[in-house]
User: What shape does this take?
Amino acid sequence: MCGITGYIGTRNAAPILIEGLCKLEYRGYDSAGLALLHNGVLDVKKKKGRVAVLASEVQSKPFYATMGISHTRWATHGGVTDANAHPHISSDGNIALVHNGIIENYENIRKFCESKGYTFKSQTDSEALANLIAYHYEYRTNKDTKNRLLEAVRKALAHVEGTYGIAVLSKFHEDEMIAARKGSPLIIGVGKDEHLVASDVLGFAGRANRVIYLEDGQIASITKDNCEIITMGNKPIDLVVNDIDWELETADMGGASSFMEKEIFEQPKVLENAIRGRISDDSSTSVLNGLNMTPNELRQVDRIIFCACGTAWHACMLAEYYIEKYVRIPVEVEYASEFRYKNAPLDKSTLVFVVSQSGETIDTLEALRESKRKGFKTLAITNSVGSTISRESDGGLYQYAGKEVGVASTKAFTSQVLISLLVALYMARMRDLSFSAGKSIVDSIISLPEHVKNVLKLAPQIKQIAKKYAYKHDFLFLGRLGEFPLALEGALKLKEISYIHAEGYPAAEMKHGPIALVCPECPTVIFANTEEIIPKLVSNAQEIKARKGQLIAITDTPESFEGLADDIIALPKVHEAIMPIVATIPIQLLAYYVALERGCDVDKPRNLAKAVTVE
Ligand code: F6R
Assistant: This one.
């Protein structure tokens, strides 16, 4: 979603800010802008469209400054226009602001500012905050106070309802940048004689190895060689500076034609990373120290709630499948956005798990907070070391999948599913799962990367299939049990990157409605890898063919679909525990090749953002 970068130091700020914005492009945006400050002049450039458009504007009218702020906007309030792009400048010309998040009471703030004579050029909620800070600077702070800008921001933010990550400049403060956050991530990079600010560490990749994570309710006053942080209540905070592991954080395409392609094909390695160090010496269970729970505490758990959004929510459905199957305790999977508001009944032996690749999804973060507010132990599975979710959870497991840049989640999904299998195995072995049953699951987990490698070799066949169906308008995806979440994930992947309407259903539900869609123009993808229900799935396939529907079977029993399916993607027979992961690969490849065939930008699909940091 929106991205922020800021720089204050001794070097030319503009190229550093543009470089930062380029690194944040993967998050999804529709316009970009920057503000530079030098000799009391705020130079602002902002343009709808790609960062490259802004960069050429900056190059054609260079402005030298050693401090500045910049932004990529993903429209929420107001259309995609130059005027709505950030930074926003207060109408008195004093304050420049970039903002991520949503100011819910912006209309009241706007009216208040207008009543004080401030004017507006955009339709955004953010401009209201720029004017409110300017008002506080002018009328609500002591002119002789050293911390006047900091005070103005603090006092203005006290009136804000909603979420924000902001970076602020004042033309009267040549040597200071203010940053603040509530519900929208902001990180300060510490360099030699310079500081950087970004909404995602990638924004200053290669420029700072040490970072300060701003927490909600904190405001920082940053100069080139100093950083002071206070709370909204004006109490100083001790700085905690962390080292960054850039190997985990950085990503390049490494010769692939897109991040999505690279991320699909690196899954064997990603799965190895998820397993590394997590199999016990006796090889019948997993070792999950990150959970921060003793075996005794885990044995007391008699219900688990998983919360997540989107693809991560599909991974949670597989967590449910594994835990109910192997641990034999009830699991519920909640959309994080619903859980945070629905006041679900929980009891003392309920464990809450949140799952988030980015570790910053606002609804997932708020679900975590809601659960913690109620006093529940709340664990997280996340891919982003140092993310807000990883910091605020009571324990959890990192995916170590490496940065996922492609907007459509691929490697993060399979790695989340694998980690939830490790959790199920760990808890099951503390209960009723036998040594030999545990060992057979462990053996299958160890063999998983190799199986995934082999299924990836089907890419040329799947590419041909994709070409055949790329111009259909609708798709159905059907699966049962551990393959029902795959039906949902297959449909989501296809629609988000190729813009084809697709729906996922449990196969048996087809007759309760979706079968009405079946016709030559609406192909069906059917998963059939669960031995005991293959005959049922064959019946579904026959029902589809009887209605002239085209059928693609993803199956480890190809003989059952010969003469029936139009196309068969044959999978190896693998242990039931790892089957859902193996069977995910073809749907990722199918969506990817369909999107390529249709000329879609797979890494930056329209309207989508990588980390959804607003509600
Ligand atoms: C789909 C996709 C999204 C994310 C969702 C949650 O391909 O990527 O549905 O899965 O926005 O994101 P995280 O996992 O970062 O919380």
User: Anything to note?
Assistant: The chain has a mean pLDDT of 95.
